[in-house]
Amino acid sequence: MKNHAPELACELADLQPAESFKISDSKSDLPAASLTVDGQAVALCSKYDPIKEATRMADQVDYSESATVFVMGIGLGYHVAEVSKRLGPKGLLIVWEPDPANLLVALTHVDHTPWLSRQHLIIFTGQPDRTTFQTKVEPYAFAITQGLRLFEHPAYRRLFPEQLTELNNHAKDIVAYARTCIATALVNNLRTHENLTANLPLYAAGASINELKDFAKGFPAVCVAAGPSLVKNVHLLQNPEIRKNIIVIAVQTALRPLLDRGITPDFVTALDYSQISARFYEDLPPLPTVTLVAEPKAHCTILDSYPGPVRTLSNEFNDVLLGDMATPKDSLPAGGTVAHLSLYLAQYIGCDPIMFIGQDLAFSDGLYYAPGTAVHQVWSSEINAHNTIEMMEYIRVMRMRGHLREATDHHGRTIYTDEQMATYHKQFERDFSNAPQTIIDATEGGLPKEHTIAMPFAESLEKHATEPTPSIPLPSTHLDSDRLSEVEKQIGNRMTDINELRQTTVQTIATIEDMMKNQRNKAKMVRLFDQLTEQREHATNDLAHAFNLITKLNVLGAYKRQKKDRLLEITTNDPYERQYKQLERDAENLDWIVQSCDEAITIFEQAMQRLSHALIQHQSPQPA
């Protein structure tokens, strides 16, 4: 337990066993238990044969479809031990017990060392809040998307109905969140890497955020989103006496509404992978004092079309691609939206407090966007006497009707949000709970947010925007042509290595297929295994850089392999059958690597074209 829940282990060491948790002997000479609640004793396991009962309870789970089992109620833990055994070491086991003192009794009277020492284990006691639950479970998103089974101890449903209902809701929320994250990663993986390599000119030869670290330490910032409530108070930033006293960080969708009101932000944040985001940057005036802070995975048209200075964040894939040419770049946490990126940027530059406006995370007044966004301009050709902006907004909301959910808004009224925005809301609350800064929700609309101070924007400005903010360091928009030329050569070398990796992988697949045909020919299997070892070492050692790049591209293949690895642990004990399935799995995974090599060559060819174009654009002036 010390490995998984060190704080809980320390807490149990100082506890006395619960008096309401009674131990007795079962007919099979194993300990049994009951819990006394309101003077009534409720049996927590069989008084006759706890193991047989635990086996029957564990039979309820289909472990081939459930990579995660959430056991609610430990009793004496016999059923937990049985579930853990069947789940296999690669599955995720989550265990909840409402009272730590009860858990202490169970661990004292029954040896639970096997499941307490498993690698993938989470233990909750008490009533974990939504943020705590999400923070602990979120790293296991892959396992959760491969099936989550809620496993309620029957007695606990009777004893703790409200707590179980709340935990069920937490579990459903985390499933929705995990599916959103993993689906985004899988579906957008290729597009993300296309964007990363397309942005190599700016990434390798442009500015980073490093120069901004803590430059505005202790000064207030406002993160401006484009929710419907933005119109309530954004006009306050039009006052130059207020504007000079606050750092303004706008999401890309809010840039146009701000500029239309004569408000020039200090920063704009971008991370969207889709080309449609270029709409937010069409026909912009020159913005020499407004810095775009962009994830390098954002679509290249955003960085290409932005009429001002650009800074990019660190990215592991591009650094592996550049190798020794990579320069140190600071990163920011991975956020679900540009609004999260705005928060992380405000924290990075040292701002405190951090205010939010326009961050509704719900359909305030039945609307999705604040008036004046680029989306409304796109819709303008369809607007007429019979089709208003409000009607278009309504249609936009109703398209999500299958994902809508009721919530309570800032004013205590019923409001609609959707599954995606509810996920982002939870991520914000988790971030706010960990933030050392004061977070002020000045949105005055949409969903309320835990771990913030709700305060009107006018009051927030009056209280905190009291002195001019420091000058913002601005980067050059010129790129180093010598560096661009070196990067171009580096990408060419990487392409050569990837082609060699592809050839080696194809040969390795042939070796594995040979092994599958000759599985019971020991002499030949020894020769084939030596051959396989040589091919693997060439791929992972001699071609390490190329292999690392392809591994990062092969997200779908890794996801499928993880699922097959887990199933192999629980479906067969026959050594030959297991070996055959392992070889089959390896051949399939290598086929995914071949496909990833092909994808890499395609996107690197496109990157080479963009590097050549950038080299022409930024060629150093020749002497007269």
Describe the 3D structure.
The protein is an alpha/beta fold. 49% of the residues lie in helices and 12% in strands. It has 25 helices and 18 strands. The strands form four sheets. Strands 8-13-12-11-10-9-14-17-18 form a nine-stranded parallel β-sheet, with helices on both faces. Strands 6-5-4-7 form a four-stranded parallel β-sheet, with helices on both faces. The chain has a three-stranded antiparallel β-sheet with strand order 1-2-3, covered by helices on one side. The radius of gyration is 29 Å and the shape is flat. The chain starts with 5 loop residues before the first helix and ends in a 7-residue tail after the last helix.
Strand percentage: 5-15%
Helicity, in percent? 40-55%
Q: Counting H and I runs of at least 4 residues, what is the number of helices?
A: 25
N-C termini distance:
73 Å
Uncertain segments: none
Helix-strand makeup class: alpha/beta
Sketch the major β-sheet: 9 strands, parallel
Estimate the global geometry from the Cα principal axes: flat
Q: Strands, helices and their partners?
A:
Blueprint: H1 6-13, E1 21-25, E2 31-37, E3 40-43, H2 50-58, E4 68-72, H3 78-87, E5 92-97, H4 100-109, H5 113-116, E6 121-125, H6 130-137, H7 141-145, E7 148-152, H8 154-159, H9 161-187, H10 189-198, H11 200-205, E8 207-208, E9 221-224, H12 240-243, E10 247-251, H13 252-260, E11 267-270, E12 291-294, H14 300-305, E13 310-312, H15 316-322, H16 338-348, E14 354-357, H17 374-379, H18 389-398, E15 404-408, E16 414-418, H19 419-434, E17 439-441, E18 453-454, H20 457-464, H21 481-517, H22 522-542, H23 544-553, H24 555-571, H25 575-617
Parallel strand pairs: 4-5, 4-7, 5-6, 8-13, 9-10, 9-14, 10-11, 11-12, 12-13, 14-17, 17-18
Antiparallel strand pairs: 1-2, 2-3, 15-16
Helix pairs in contact: 2-3, 6-19, 9-19, 10-25, 21-22, 21-23, 21-25, 22-23, 24-25
